[in-house]
Specification:
The protein is an alpha+beta fold. Helix content is 31%, strand content 19%. It folds into two domains: 339 residues, 3-Layer(bba) Sandwich (FAD/NAD(P)-binding domain); 158 residues, Flavocytochrome C3, Chain A, domain 1. It has 15 helices and 18 strands. α2 links the parallel β1 and β2.
């Protein structure tokens, strides 16, 4: 699923007509109305709509190409009142969207920012549709990989995140051609220029022409999260970065810039753990060797899940994958093992998508995260979990399954007992693609200090405000990409009017 590498990304980027540029397009002697740091999901619409409103804009991107995580992301977005819903006769409202979001994340998202998202998400999606964005057949849907909405408002473009980027590119190229936007790629912002009063008045950036200062009335941080920076991620979340799965440039540059100006960091406690990553080794951050979604709506579970103590800890067929994720989050090191036997392997669809049963049966020969044994005690030894506890938990599961007694965790899908050798274990790790901590902002996207006072002329949008702001302590459908684009559009329009 996540087999993209840096060379792949840069090859794709090279095909874009505005992928590469140099500092000749930006004049350090020029004063800009808006300086946008980060040319990705949030920064592109911010720069575009500010320019269309009349602002003189400088857009700075440290990669050779614009697009950011849109090269990496499925780009799934959600909104009510869209043309895609209208085509299918779907009745929906921002109020229903808001209620669904807060239900899924159990009221852990910022309600004001969530409300702002859902009130304007339909307009954002309709703008994309007007500029060529098309969804895959059958969309919108109620959900895909996470807990579902009650209405069909969730959609993915035919080219995933690239569908979103392609909708923006013609307008962006036109604004650059008209010199409404000056573009710098392969340029990293090293610092903010801040007056003694605390007002931010520009940035210091290093690129192909060396280090230069650029002055601006408004500075927008839109440079993404820190889920590719192990040290910063753990500092802000109190949880190790378990896996190398995020976009490589997600190093937290905007977080550091915002903190340097006095901005507060919030949301680290909202970290949520995705299930089922099979790491290449117990070394963090690990590479993804394989992935088992553990989503009961995608594949009903035959296996049981246990923790390092050999204990079951969750209802494996819970209709809410969020509850499975929360169960994994509560386990030591967020580690979990899928346990199954020969008959389960023979009769069920493989737990890892696109793997054959033969590969599942024999992977133990070449990879340490897979174990096979003729007894449960030997399996526990090989997998590194508590043998007596594993035996006790499986005996209890089998007894209840055979006699029809209620499962101890409420599980209802129990097709087989675990009793026919050989027995198998797959070691898995909780993981994330995003960072939940981010800069504190108000509904005008101004960066706030620890006393919740706005830092003059400094704004933040996108993952730099943290996934937890709008997704909460959960993976809420579309509440990462949708607010990034929507907030970029809203902030850019507002700043354009002030120019």
């Amino acid at each position: 699923m996540l087999d993209l590498n840096r060379r792949t990304l840069l090859t794709a980027a090279a095909a874009l007509s505005i992928a590469r540029t140099d500092t000749s397009r930006a004049d350090p002697a020029q004063h800009y109305d808006v300086i946008v740091v980060g040319g990705g999901t949030a920064g592109i619409p911010c720069a575009l709509f500010a320019a269309q409103g009349g602002a003189r804009v400088l857009l700075i991107e440290k990669s050779p190409a614009l697009g950011g995580t849109l090269f990496w992301s499925t780009g799934q977005i959600a909104g009510a009142g869209t043309v895609f819903q209208q085509r299918l006769g779907i009745t929906d409202s921002p109020d229903a969207h808001f209620d669904d979001c807060m239900r899924i994340n159990e009221n852990t998202a910022d309600p004001a920012l969530t409300r702002l998202t859902v009130d304007h998400a339909g307009e954002t999606i309709n703008w994309l549709a007007k500029h060529g964005f098309e969804v895959i057949t059958g969309h919108p849907v109620t959900g895909i990989g996470h807990d579902h909405f009650t209405a069909r408002r969730y959609q993915q473009g035919v080219k995933s995140g690239m569908s979103i980027l392609n909708a923006f590119l013609p307008s962006l190229e036109a604004a650059i051609a008209r010199q409404q936007i000056s573009l710098l790629t392969e340029t990293a912002v090293q610092g903010l220029i801040q007056e003694n009063s605390g007002k931010v008045v520009g940035v210091t950036a290093t690129g192909l022409s060396g280090t230069q200062d650029f002055r601006g009335t408004h500075v927008v941080l839109a440079s993404g999260g820190c889920a590719a920076n192990p040290r910063l991620f753990e500092d802000l979340h109190g949880v190790p970065l378990y896996a190398k799965t995020a976009y490589p440039t997600s190093q937290g540059d905007g977080l550091i810039l915002g903190m340097s100006a006095g901005g507060a960091i919030v949301g680290g406690e909202k970290y949520a753990s995705l299930p089922g990553l099979v790491p290449d080794a117990w070394q963090y951050p690990a590479q993804m060797h394989a992935w088992a979604p553990l989503h009961p709506m995608v594949r009903k579970p035959w296996e049981i899940l246990v923790n390092a103590h050999g204990e079951r800890f969750v209802r494996e067929d819970h209709p809410s994958v969020h509850q499975i994720e929360r169960g994994i989050y509560r386990q030591p090191g967020h580690r979990h093992w899928a346990i199954f036997d020969a008959e389960m392997l023979a009769k069920s669809e493989p737990i890892i998508p696109d793997w054959s049963r033969d590969r599942l049966a024999n992977e133990y020969q070449t990879h340490s995260m897979f174990s096979r044994a003729m007894t449960l005690e030997e399996l526990a030894f090989r997998a590194g979990i508590n043998a007596s506890s594993l035996r006790r938990n499986i005996d209890d599961y089998n007894r209840r399954q055979k006699t029809g007694l209620a499962d101890g965790f409420g599980r209802t899908h129990r097709p087989l007992a675990i009793e026919k050798a050989p027995f198998y274990a797959i070691a898995m790790q909780g993981w994330t693609l995003v960072s939940f901590a981010g800069l504190s902002v108000n509904i005008n996207f101004q960066v706030l200090d620890p006393q919740r006072e706005a830092i003059s002329n400094l704004y933040a949008i996108g993952e730099v405000i943290g996934a937890g702001a709008t997704s909460g302590a959960a993976y809420t459908n579309g509440m990462l990409v949708t607010p990034a684009i929507t907030f970029g559009r809203l902030l850019g329009s507002a700043l354009g009017k002030r120019s």
